[in-house]
Amino acid sequence: MGYYKTIDGKKYDGEIIELADKLTEGQGDGRLSVDDAKQLLEAVLDGGAYTDIEKDTMAYVRENYKWTDAADEHFRTEIRKAAAQR
């Protein structure tokens, strides 16, 4: 597993936080697009399991980063599909 990033005393997946930062940095209005959501989904599912740390990390990203409505819908739909297949 990759490295962790601690924010306010809670451990998160550092690679996912870093990716979210990179995707919103200097890009248009700073919101995560559907393409960004696809990249985040790929990062979450790369290990073959949606771990508790990854779930907490994505909850943090969903709360603290701006998403387009389409990106939010895409991510939530795809993560549910992936969870149902496991």
Task: Provide a descriptive summary of the structure in words.
It is a single chain. The protein is mainly alpha-helical and 86 residues long. It has one domain. The chain is built from four helices and two strands; from the N terminus they run ββαααα. It has helices at 14-24, 34-45, 52-64, 69-85, and strands at residues 4-7, 10-13. The protein has a two-stranded antiparallel sheet. A hairpin with a 2-residue loop joins β1 and β2. α1 (14-24) runs antiparallel to α2 (34-45) and α2 (34-45) packs parallel to α4 (69-85). The longest helix is centred in the last third of the chain and has 17 residues, at 69-85. It is globular, with a radius of gyration of 12 Å. The mean pLDDT is 91.
Features:
86 residues; mainly alpha; two-stranded antiparallel sheet; 4 helices; globular
State the separation between the terminal residues, measured CA to CA: 19 Å
Largest sheet: 2 strands, antiparallel
Indicate the radius of gyration in whole angstroms: 12 Å
The total count of strands amounts to 2
Chart the SSEs and their pairings:
Elements: E1 4-7, E2 10-13, H1 14-24, H2 34-45, H3 52-64, H4 69-85
Antiparallel strand pairs: 1-2
Give a short summary of the structure.
This protein has about 90 residues and is mostly helical.
